[in-house]
Amino acid sequence: MTATDIADVLWTWTPYLAGGFAWNILLSIVTMAIGTPIGLLLAAMRASHRRSAARTGNLLTGVARNIPTFVMLFYLAYMLPPEVTVLGQTLPVPAWVKASLALAVAVAGFVSDNALPAIRHLRRHDTAAALLFLPAWTNYFLIIVMASSTASVIGVPEIVQRANTVVGAVGDVDVMLWIYLYAMVWFFAVCWPLALTMQVVRRRLRHRADARWGGHRAASGPVAAAPADAAVSGIPVGRVP
Amino acid sequence: MTVPPRPSGRCAAFLLAILITLSAAWPAAADRLAEIRERGTLVVGVKADYAPFGSRNSDGEIVGYDVDIARGFAERLGVDLLLVPVTSADRLQKLERGDIDVVVATLGDTRERRQLVTMIEPHYYGDGANLLLRPDSGVERWSDLHGMTVCGVQGSLWNRPAAERLLVDVVSFNTTRETRLALRDGQCVGWLFDEVALLHELETGDWPGYSVPLPTIMVLPWAVAIARSEAGGPLDRLLGDTLAEWHRSGWLRQLEQRWDLPPSSFLRDANQLWQRTDEAGAPVCRRGEDGLWPLDCRELALATADEVGGVTGLSLWILEATGLNISILHDPFDRHLFLVGLGWTALLAVSCLAGSVGLGIVLGWLIHRRLPIVRPLLLAAASLFRMTPPLLQLYVVFFGLGAVVAATGFTVNGFAVAVAILSLYAGSANAVAFAEAADVAALHGGHRLGFTGHDIRRAFALGYATIMGNSVNVVKATGLASTIAVPELIHASASIVADKGNAVAMMNILLICYFALILLTVKAFQFLERRAVRP
Asked: For residue A220, what are the domain limits?
């Protein structure tokens, strides 16, 4: 197969793959929408002065933090029924809902860990430092977009699943490499600019926060600054959650 | 070939159980075998509508595989044979009522039915599900099917368990003819059906390039049954010994051939098992002092807890009491699969940890030293790894590059690819963290760090939290290796669920194992920090 042939194949299948990528984005948005409120709730529990609430919050966060999403994906795929009956209505539970719920577990853990220091900053009226939560959250959204590709293994028709379909349909092993690389380009083209933007936002916010609080935070240096989402809590964040 | 018989429903079984309880006052048959000999006739219930196992020929006689088994029993006893036609609905009742002595009627052996009748071991036949696969489907094991579409025949016993256990979409068609057409049209990757029926399809020669390459799953063994009160009695022993002899001699396989049944894996495996001998030359499968066959020669999932004892017995007791099937405790095959999976996952975790931390330190140091070309190149690579899904990275190397390499005659090793990609993935993130930590350390020390134990340790201590986070993530990500055919824990668990349908037990065990693995990793890092990093 020549380069033009390969380009031709990729061009022909672009709308189909783009539709798959829309699934990735949709899946990620739903995941964040489910996981964020739960994470905020957990963080509020941990910040609470009630001992029992704080302990429960810590325990649940620890569980959410330590379960690999890829394992959770299989867990829910097998354990959730294919349909549920609510008030006499039978509703299907499609694979993408299961995938969203599985990924949302990791989001809840992450949000809990990162909203906790933000809540403490807010209590000290350090709004700028608290706002650092936002770029960290956006970065995690990108991580979830990456992780949404794993939903392909339980049959969600997102871009990787569709790339597999294209590989099968084209039936030429030489194209396989290019189809997967092309799917990769989609992720990179969308996520990289957003990641760069967030880097700028974070730098500005940190600058503002440091300006207000004098130089003392600078002592922690760029180590804490770069992977802020990890360093604020000293707790692992998922690149691959 | 149609679907193997199933329990006629819980409700019927329940009613029957009540009937049997009520009839407990009836005089128990003292010795059925003596009675048969005295009578001079063996009365056997067989099917009359299920070719080739039991059906009427043009002369109106009932013939078939099951009928030959019944005849074999009568010959062994030296008595006449009287055949009584039975159906799936009435065969167990007729047996309990004493209308017939023995049932040989395509009866699948299940725990529920063992509450009602005595099943003779060894089993005399067995059929399970398999898949007639399209040419070049790329499917090499059951777990490769996750998320794919398979065709099935409506009403087939396998459709529901397949959807639940294999995570596949089953599109079912009204008739086998429609299913054949759908498979040919490419509407699905394969046709899920009775193994025996699919092998029969292949033999017709209509399916060039198609194959049935996977091991048969969900095997339902068929048993000869006698009354419940005869358990452990002389009739039980005699029929069991006879069947064992037929497995050893291969007579059952000849019978299979005579009735044009395709060679089933069940009879092939049983033939090998029962022929096995120990050092002294005696058969491995011989009755113990309790009259039972050794555990290796039985369907353990059907044995009862008090027959077995030990961990196996405990596991069976849990199964009886709660329905939770922890098959890795009582099934040696599943246990082996699971332990191998655990071993691979541990090996993946250790290799990826070593690889990612090692790469992180070396590459991070190179970035820190501001080497021309190397630094921007490494930073770009780190971004590339971070901004593309690791699953696709694995696919690109394993399948994409794999296909290119295959043209030169080499094959790509899944484990090596997984370790390389995951190490690079987490290693590039570690490198950035290490470089930044080294920069800070250099700021305090006044000069750039050298590649010495002391300097490396200082930078590592500063970047410790981030590196630990990345390391936990790489351990979490080892499960991805299952997508490129590394037989690790997720892969093993999915295979066991596919065969046994014990998703609740296996998925919880899987979750606990990974949870423990992550905690172990965190503990190991904390130990490392205390001992080596901050002495």
From this structure: 3-231
What confidence tens digit (pLDDT) does each residue in B42-91 have? 999 998 887 788 888 889 899 999 999 999 999 999 999 999 998 877 88
DSSP lists the bridge partners of residue B118 as: B226
Distance (Å) from the alpha carbon of A82 to chain B's nearest alpha carbon: 9
Record: contact B515-A66, CB cut-off 8 A: yes
Across A14-23, average pLDDT: 96
User: Under an 8 A CB cutoff, do A155 and B147 touch?
Assistant: yes
Nearest CA in chain B to A220: B440
Inter-chain CB proximity B476 and A188 less than 8 Å: no
pLDDT tens digits for range B327-383: 898 888 889 989 999 999 999 999 999 999 999 999 999 999 888 888 888 888 888
> Which of B395, B411, B449, B488 is best to mutate for the A interface (most A CBs within 10 A)?
B395
Q: How far apart are the first and last CA of chain A?
A: 38
- Dig out the tokens for B22 from the structure: 């009520």
Q: Is B461 helix (H, G, I), strand (E, B) or coil?
A: helix
Gyration radius of chain A over CA positions: 21
Q: Which domain holds residue B67?
A: 10-124+223-302
Question: DSSP per residue over B25-48, as a string?
Answer: GSPPPS-HHHHHHHHTEEEEEEES
Residues linked to residue B109 through DSSP beta bridges, in sequence order? none
**Are A187 and B396 a contacting pair at CB < 8 A?**
no
Residue type, A136: A
Q: Which helix (H) or strand (E) holds B218?
A: strand B217-222
> Residue B272's pLDDT is what?
93
Look at residue A240 and tell me if it is in a domain: no
Q: What CATH number is given to the structural domain containing B153?
A: 3.40.190.10
Which secondary structure element, helix H or strand E, spans residue B191, and what is its range?
strand B190-194
CB–CB contact B389 A146 (8 Å):
yes
**Element of type H or E holding B385:** helix B374-386
Q: Which residues pair with B126 in a beta bridge?
A: B221
B contact test, residue of A67, A140, A153 with most B CBs within 10 A:
A153
Instruction: Grade residue B26 by pLDDT with cuts at 50, 70 and 90.
Output: very low
Q: Does residue B408 share a domain with residue B282?
A: no
* pLDDT recorded at residue A228: 32
Tell me how far apart the alpha carbons of residues B257 and B255 are, in angstroms, rounded to a whole number: 5
Whether residues B87 and B175 share a domain: the answer is no
Which residues in chain A touch residue B186, judged by CB atoms under 8 angstroms apart? none
- What ipTM was reported for this prediction? 0.86
Number of domains in chain B: 3
Q: In chain A, which residue's Cα lies nearest the Cα of B148? A: A155
Residue B160 has pLDDT above 90, yes or no: no
In a shared domain, residues B507 and B384: yes
Q: Give, for B455, the enclosing helix (H) or strand (E).
A: helix B453-462
Q: Are residues B384 and B496 in the same domain?
A: yes
Domain count along chain A: 1
Whether B37 and B140 share a structural domain: no
Separation between Cα atoms, residue B462 and residue B336, nearest integer Å: 43
Strands (E) across A63-106 are located at 83-86, 89-92
The amino acid at A175: V
In chain A, the residue whose alpha carbon lies closest to the alpha carbon of B187 is A169
Q: Are A179 and B405 in contact (CB under 8 A)?
A: no
Residue B19's φ and ψ, nearest 5 degrees, are: -55, -45
Q: Are residue B367 and residue B392 in the same domain, yes or no?
A: yes
Cβ separation A146–B388 shorter than 8 A: yes
Q: Which amino acid is at A183?
A: A
Asked whether residue B515 falls in the same domain as residue B415, the answer is yes
Q: Between B243 and A223, whose confidence is greater?
A: B243
CATH number for the domain that contains residue A150: 1.10.3720.10
Query: Helix, strand or coil for residue B170?
Result: strand
User: Chains A and B: how many Cβ contacts under 8 Å?
Assistant: 177
The full DSSP string for A106-126 is HHHHHHHHHHHHHHHHHHTT-
